[in-house]
Amino acid sequence: MELINKIFTTNYIKSLIEEDEEIARFRKESEDRNIPIIHEEVANFIKVILHLLKPLKILELGTAVGFSSFFMAKIIDNDNLEIKTIERRDSFVDEASKNLERLNYKGNIEILPGDALEILENLEEKFDLVFIDAAKSKYLDFLPYCFNLLKKDGIIISDNVLYKGMIANDDLVERRQKTIVRKMRKYLKTISNHPSMESSVLPLGDGLAITVKKGETYE
After folding, report:
1. Are 23 and 70 in contact (CB under 8 A)?
2. Residue-wise pLDDT tens for the chain (219 aa)?
């Protein structure tokens, strides 16, 4: 985090946030095991987006242990909510299923196990919101599918888009991360300049991008 923002600024922002007890407990359990989940300040911003958009159909790429799905369901708090969340790692699929089974939330969360691109190719329903928190080198590959699966005026939230500051500063780029950096920069340039999208990139957490679908055609 400190590679994007000054650590004292981040710590101050986090000090203002009071998470729901169940969410805070789930966060601590995950962070104690070094499971990557959305940062507190990112979650707080997403909470505002959820209250504004009031989405009832959400697609998530990257379930991990189920924290983000549970967080969104807890915030939206609606029996009609439907979340489809994609996860390729069997261990995470199993753990997320158990975590979601023991937690209280409204709506329906369905975990779709397998490769995200293969699953995206076969989805046909439309979503109010897409949350991308999966393999960073694949964001640009996911984008056309996510765009087409999104309703008009729907939102794509992309997490970790500044990746430890490397996306914004060549001096920070590690040799083995060059491919990820190159692809993520192309992704950010695409969503920032596409005629059918309106996007903003924010230095929250490890970088967050908010994209609104304003047109119907991706190409």
Report:
1. yes
2. 445 667 888 888 889 999 999 999 999 999 999 999 999 999 999 999 999 999 999 999 999 999 999 999 999 999 999 999 999 999 999 999 999 999 989 999 999 999 999 999 999 999 999 999 999 999 999 999 999 999 999 999 999 999 999 999 999 999 999 999 999 999 999 999 999 999 999 999 999 999 999 999 997
Task: Measure the CA–CA gap between 6 and 182, rounded to whole angstroms.
Answer: 25
Provide the β-strand partners of residue 85: 60, 111
Helix (H, G, I), strand (E, B), or coil: what is residue 134? coil
- Residue 90 has which token pair? 């069997």
Question: What is the pTM for the complete model shown?
Answer: 0.94
Query: In this structure, are strands 127-132 and 57-61 parallel, antiparallel, or unpaired?
Result: parallel
DSSP structural state of residue 174: -
Domains and CATH numbers, the chain: 7-213 (3.40.50.150)
Listed in sequence order, the residues at least 6 apart from 96 whose beta carbon sits closer than 8 Å to its beta carbon are 63, 64, 65, 66, 69, 85, 87, 111
